[in-house]
Amino acid sequence: MKPAGFATATSPALPSISLRGRTRSSARSYATSRLSTGSRISPMGCIWFRDNAKHPDVTETCQYYAFFHGIATTNTHPELWKRLTDEFGPERKAKGLYKEAWPANAFIGSLMRLIVLKREGCDAQVSREIRGYYHKMAETTGTLWEHDRPKASCNHGFASYLAILLDATNK
After folding, report:
1. pTM reported for the whole predicted model
2. How many domains does one find in the chain?
3. Counting C-beta atoms within 10 Å of the first and last residue's C-beta, which end of the chain has fewer, N or C?
4. Which of 8-22, 33-47, 137-151 has the lowest average pLDDT?
5. What's residue 166's pLDDT?
6. Which domain holds residue 20?
């Protein structure tokens, strides 16, 4: 039984995800109002979703919000999807790719990336990237962190969602 006031959006690949008080359509509407579709073109010719429509910054996490909420799909934005799956992930910062897009952090950007990849059937990539994002954390403190560096919560409860991803990926 789910708590009162909670609506859920379902995915065939994963259990329900709570949208706390929002119906699926209101969550999509909320997400749409927060994104500006592809109006920023980088010096490399890439089209990005931008945060808050008025804000000039491009963030990696904003791209995942667009796919997570269905504003972008692999069919509507195949070039962006290919770029995100092939060139983003745990090694992007180290490789110095797409410096115009602020990198995602463990919560919520990297976690949302993994959920979106899982929904699209990229199970092997999800398994590799969980190790890429979270292995250092587990080795260092035995816990999973809020950020990719031990500067805040080094025992973040929401990171336990990785267990669901791993279970769903290993079936």
Report:
1. 0.71
2. 1
3. N
4. 8-22
5. 83
6. 8-169
Return the ∠ at Cα 124 (arms to 15 and 17), rounded to 5°.
15
The answer for residues whose C-beta is within 8 angstroms of residue 65's C-beta and 6 or more apart is: 31, 34, 35, 49, 71, 112
Query: What are the tens digits of pLDDT across the range 112-151?
Result: 999 999 999 999 999 999 999 888 988 998 888 777 877 7
Q: Report how far residue 171's alpha carbon sits from residue 167's, in angstroms, rounded to the nearest whole number.
A: 7
Cα separations (Å) of 52 from 58, 111, 113, 140, 166?
10, 20, 19, 35, 32
DSSP label at residue 116: H
Considering the domain boundaries, does residue 2 fall inside one?
A: no
Residue 160 falls inside a structural domain: yes
Q: Is the dihedral of CA 146, 26, 122, 50 positive or negative?
A: negative
Nearest to 67 by CA among 80, 50, 51: 80
The predicted pLDDT at position 163 comes to: 85
What is the C-alpha separation between 167 and 85, in angstroms, rounded? 21
Reported as half-sphere exposure (CB side, CA atoms, 13 A), residue 152 has a value of 9
Residue 157 has pLDDT above 90, yes or no: no
Is cis: bond before 108, omega within 30 of 0?
Answer: yes
